[in-house]
Amino acid sequence: MEPTDHLFRHEAGRMVAVLTRIFGVHNLALAEDVVQDAFCRALEVWKFRGMPENPPAWLLATAKNCALDALRRERTARTYAPELGRLLDSEWTLAPRSGRTLRSERDQGRPAAYDVLLLPASIA
Question: Which of 71, 79, 60 is nearest to 121 (CA)?
Answer without folding.
Answer: 71
